[in-house]
Amino acid sequence: MESLMISFVIPSYNEAGNIAGVMEVIANEMLHQRVGYEVLFVDDGSTDGTMNEIRDLLFMYPEAEYISFTRNFGKEAAILAGLQFAKGHAVILMDADLQHPPSLIPELLKGFEEGYDQVIAKRNRKGDSYFRSLLSSTYYRFVNKAIDVQLENGEGDFRLLSRRAVDSILLLSEGNRFSKGIFAWIGLEQKTISYDNVVRQVGDTKWSLSKLLNYAIDGVVSFNTKPLRLCMYMGLTIVGAAIAYIVVTLIGIYKHGVDVPGYFTTITAVLLLGGIQLLSLGIIGEYIGRIYNETKKRPHFLVQQSSVESTTKEQTGQ
Ligand code: UDP
Ligand code: MG
Predict the structure, then answer these.
(1) Strand 5-12 relative to strand 36-43, pairing
(2) Ligand 1 atom with least separation from CA of 97
């Protein structure tokens, strides 16, 4: 067990007030573990002195490492960078804001020693507003119907990934990354442990309503093409109904002569069809946008500076 090495990956965006604290609690937890570790901070283009905090840590802790981006590329990019640069036999993904309780580290490691490739820390939604938990449970019910992998409400990025799981994740090179779906997609042996929701102490959440909405849409379209199929079915149903309507009306005209043409029905039909066409166009556009982005094959992030070397050649952007 002594040569075992664990990498912590901490995506950090404007977390100056949290960096020192998270390093300290991780170090405390790891005191009791007989394994080597590194704590890899991914500074996602912070503008608040997060990077200074990280540099200070490098003097105090030999385990501290960092990657910094040239600008804010988003948490998904930060996670990807962390996974690419992590050297450990296993990686623990953790937020910088201590909302992912480090007290679970021993349990995560235990799962790894038991041979699991993913040890998932699942949070209950205690403390979330009623509106937000209703929103998320509705979302998961809907998404799980629509996509091919199953997502669990409360299972976020907080988890341990074995080297095998990390390498599998790195095989997925898509530009528009949706980690939750990717973690579910790779499969492998999984164990779930649960914890109580923790409220953020320092700083603000980086999620605005519009960011959440975009994330929700990514969840659906990143993982399947079913919405496209849905458009087709909708179109087919409407065409079928229209044909039936025409036949019935024609028979009516044949039997009773021409009725007064209905203004209301005309408008309804136009609006309905217009709406459905717009919706379909929107969905098609969504996929075309994705194809466009994929064909550009842009790197997911650019590294400004780092204290470690990437384990994969790909995507360092340099
Ligand atoms: N984060 C990041 N880049 C971003 C936004 C967030 O690296 O563009 C990091 C952030 O610093 C934190 C983690 O992702 O460590 C989770 O962010 P946050 O706490 O805002 O999300 P929430 O816990 O509210 O879901
Ligand atoms: Mg948080």
Answers:
(1) parallel
(2) 15
Confidence of residue 318 (pLDDT cuts 50, 70, 90): very low
Residues with CB under 6 A from ligand 1: 11-13, 15, 44, 72, 74-75, 78, 95-97, 99, 200, 205-207
Q: Which residue has the higher pLDDT, 286 or 38?
A: 38
- Tell me what percent of the residues of the chain surpass a pLDDT of 90: 31
**What strand order describes the sheet that includes 190-195?**
190-195, 118-123, 155-162, 90-93, 5-12, 36-43, 64-69, 303-306
The amino acid occupying position 63 is E
Nearest atom (ligand 1) to Cα of 96 = 15
Q: In this structure, which ligand is nearest to the CA of 18?
A: 1
pTM of the model: 0.77
Ligand number nearest to the C-alpha of 95: 1
Return the pLDDT at 310: 72
Q: Which atom of ligand 1 is nearest to the CA of 206?
A: 20
Kindly write down the DSSP assignment for every residue of 167-228, as one continuous string: HHHHH---SS--HHHHHHHH--SEEEEEE------SS--S--HHHHHHHHHHHHHTS-SHHH
| ipTM metric | 0.94
